[in-house]
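3.2 Worked example (two chains)
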Amino acid sequence: QEGYGITDTWDEIVDKMMEIAPTTLEGVNKRVTELDSTVRQRMDEFEVRFEDAQFDRALLRARVNTLYRDRPDHRRTAMIMDREAMYSREAWAFSMDMSSAIGAHVRTLKTQVAALITQTTSLQTQLTMALGRIEVLEARDPE
């Protein structure tokens, strides 16, 4: 078999395989380690997100429970606000009525004042005329 070179070729193949095997094993080990690191990192990220989601759900649950528990208070508040709005409308209507009544009274008083001014002016004119006559009479008849 030596003359054909089969043994030499076989030995070379085995030697090369022995050289490649550790390199391949190291490469596989390196890739497995990288994969393990990636998986651990992603698991850590998932756990953080999962915990955040659970925390958010707990907050939402607490808010819903609070709203449910406070529902009668909200209903009562809405009723009070409706009642206050009704009272405000009634007070506004009353104030408008009073404003109209006061406006009418002011107009009446203005009319009365104008009449009194006219009457006073007339009386002043009469008084001035009477004083003028008195002066004329006194000038005619000196005592």
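3.2.1 Second chain
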Amino acid sequence: MAFIGTAAAQVGLAIVGKITEFTVEPIGRQLGYICFYKKYIDELNVKINERILPTRDTVQASIRVAERNREDIAADVRQWLSDADKILEKKKELEGDKGDANAGCCTKWSCLNLWSQHQLGRKAQKLMREIDDLYRKRKTITTISHPKDPQQLISSFPTGYLSYNSRETKLKEIMDALTSTDVNVIGVHGFAGVGKTTLVREVAKRAKVDNLFDVVVFAEAKQNPDVKQIQKQIADMLGLKLEDENERARAARLLDRLKQEKRILVILDDLWEGIDLNILGIPLGDDQTGTKKLMAPKDNIGDKQEGWKVSKKSREEELPIGDAHKVCKILITSRDEGILSAKMGSKKNILVGT
């Protein structure tokens, strides 16, 4: 019987504990909102000043630096900043509610004031939990920003282009050549200072804005072209890092990267002498019959690059799906038309400055 009595007592205590858990504790918590609402608001102010404001200022400063460097802000950073601003807005609303609760036409212990105090205490507690969560979340963010995709910058190229009839005519001629299936290498030639660079920069910008090409790369060749320097310029516009390898190894990496794209425009500006596109790592597509290949232009040396051409009859059997639509166009500027035709295999040369 004693055992039964002890067991009954334990069951009774368990039941009482549950009743306390589901009734007394919640009631105590609700009363706490009323009794300690001022304390909760003071604690909230401390958390705002210690955890939100200084952290938000630091994040905003980092964002300003990143934006000056033309970098993209990480999505979780923007979300964190938005959440912080929402917390500050809620805090501002809470201050307004506090004034309403303290002002009142009722006595301190009226039902209206008790309800207002309860709401203030409850909201302050909830907001403190949100602050703690946001503070912890900030510690998990390791990257504020990352460099923009270089291809995104092309549409905002600072070309310095001024439109007038004769220049628009040349621009249209180049754009038409880029969309032609009969031409892969286009040359732009003319005396120094006539605006060749400005014109092809505008071509690059419009080609990207109009979505004519998936990838547009621009590299300056200049006198005595440095192969590695040209390769680096191309790699930078692809977001690709080239190690200090030999020219052919770098060319292979560039070629592999470019072959991942379907529509490519490569612009080589201010070429003073012929240069081997194979050594640069530039694929040259032949689109005259609807087929594609990686091929060297006239007078170039090096092995033929495989992957972009088979005969029209067999291309469907030998090429992976999608490869039959790959296009690579090369746009080159030079003072010497002979370099464009004889050394670079240009089939369409456009004179600028006439």
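3.3 Remarks
The chain has twelve helices and seven strands.
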